[in-house]
């Protein structure tokens, strides 16, 4: 796997600026009170260039920037009178379909669907405009059947969907082991079973799968059912950082409503700062939103195990997206892509500059 290194100078600058941003958040009164006032803010605040912005995200902890930003009203406060309309998805490809169908304008999504969406449209349907999270992906297995990584051979391991971020990561890991799997069918030395995150825990308890390469909280839900963590994907990456959630926007919406995109990014940056400054409150907030979306909160044994493995960052970690594209090519899911222009980080850099923070890198893949 290629080595990518972040500069310590940039990291120190970001840390130095963080107290300023946190102080600004405190003065804005984010939290439960903001949640109660969201409708009032939308009704009375200054409207931006769009009446509504439609934002998609997953009911996953790796999408906690969106969960918390929505729950605490941070995103809506930045949008003012422009109404936030949220939709949820269970896997990236379906969210890309919604973006292509003009059903959403902005999405929180993993790198592989973003890459696929960009390349299949010949670079015309989306841009990545920001980062959101790193990590939060684990290989969890039935310890009675699988005790070592070599024991995976011949077993049935779930991923959420063909071509999604975890699916590509697992196929790449299998390839690096020297094992063979047909990417499309999932058949081979390991059986890759594409299973919706909603049903993966039941599939595990019924014995129809022996484990899963899954994002949180699905991984920890299986652990609560007796599974064991065999591998944390972050250990496979230099500095243990890799992009798990990006922020994308349709190019049409970005062109027509740059002020709205900037407001969402401003809300995302402030949300991440609040999460990192208030981890326990943020964990509770994310769980409250999950209860609202799914009808049931996560148990303490699930969320407490899952939360520490996720890092919330505004940096899109662009170099790791390039590596993930190479993994998809190697797996046979993608022809060598032209990713030039997939990033437009100018709105994010504007937001970061206003907060006294440095720009983030696009790995040479930004708009010219």
Keywords:
single chain, 368 residues, alpha/beta, 6-stranded mixed beta sheet, 5-stranded mixed beta sheet, 16 helices, 16% strand, disordered N terminus
Let me know the average pLDDT. Answer: 89
Number of helices: 16
How helix-rich are the residues, as a percent range? 40-55%
Which stretches are low in confidence, meaning pLDDT under 50 for 5 or more residues running?
1-35
Give the class from helix and strand content and strand pairing: alpha/beta
Spatial strand arrangement across the major sheet: 2-1-3-10-4-11
Strand content: 15-25%
Radius of gyration using CA atoms only: 20 Å
Give the terminus-to-terminus CA distance. Answer: 28 Å
Explain what this protein looks like in three dimensions:
- With 368 residues, the protein is of the alpha/beta class.
- The chain is built from 16 helices and eleven strands.
- The strands form two sheets. It has a six-stranded mixed β-sheet, sandwiched between helices.
- α8 (165-176) links the parallel β6 and β7.
- α4 crosses α13.
- It is globular and about 60 Å long.
- The model is unreliable at 1-35 (pLDDT under 50).
